[in-house]
From TrEMBL:
It holds the Pfam family Fra10Ac1. Residues 20-41 have a biased composition (Basic and acidic residues). Residues 1-45 are annotated as: Disordered. Transmembrane segments: none annotated. Residues 10-19 have a biased composition (Acidic residues). It comes from the Eukaryota. This is FRA10A associated CGG repeat 1.
Length: 170
């Protein structure tokens, strides 16, 4: 519109009366004046190869860190074990733990359950005994349920009522 290519801007310093090459020279001269003597030019020499490899290593480390942070603890563990096996050799079977000694909470309760707990029983409490005692404390001990189906064989069973049985009135 002002004869310089058909585009106009309300924010330009241009009044349409100057040559664009003259403004470019003026801008370049201002840049030279404002440049500090210890500053390097806009286009320095090509960087050294070691600087480039150092930057690449930093970028790769940053990417690895971001990848590890995005994983949960178990996935991170599996990755580290896999990397260890790749580097040092071996098999995944060496790292699998044996499930033969595993016990559920129910197994622990069965082994350490007592129908009646006394104050003397609370001495030397192990973790298993504490679990059994907590379960005992939660039971409703007003009435017990007895199984006398084998009383002729001198076998009988007692147990405390559970919360559902108390609510239902059993």
């Amino acid at each position: 519109i002002h004869g310089s290519g058909g585009y106009d801007s309300d924010f330009s310093d241009d009044n349409g009366d100057g040559d664009s090459s003259e403004k470019a020279r003026e801008r370049k001269r201002e840049g030279e004046i404002l440049q500090k003597p210890f500053e390097k030019g806009r286009h320095p020499k090509v960087a050294h190869r070691s600087l480039h490899s150092c930057e690449v290593d930093r970028e790769e480390a940053r990417n690895r860190r971001a990848h590890l942070i995005s994983m949960n603890a178990f996935e991170r563990h599996k990755k580290f074990v896999g990397d260890y096996i790749l580097y040092y050799g071996g098999q995944m079977a060496d790292f699998r733990r044996s499930a033969a000694k595993d016990k559920t909470d129910q197994d622990v309760l069965r082994e350490n359950h007592r129908f009646l707990w006394r104050d003397e029983d609370e001495e030397d409490m192990t973790w298993e005994k504490e679990v059994a005692k907590k379960y005992y404390d939660k039971l409703f001990k007003e009435y017990c349920i007895a199984d006398l189906s084998r009383y002729k064989e001198n076998k009988f069973g007692f147990r405390w009522r559970t919360e559902n049985e108390v609510v239902s009135g059993k």
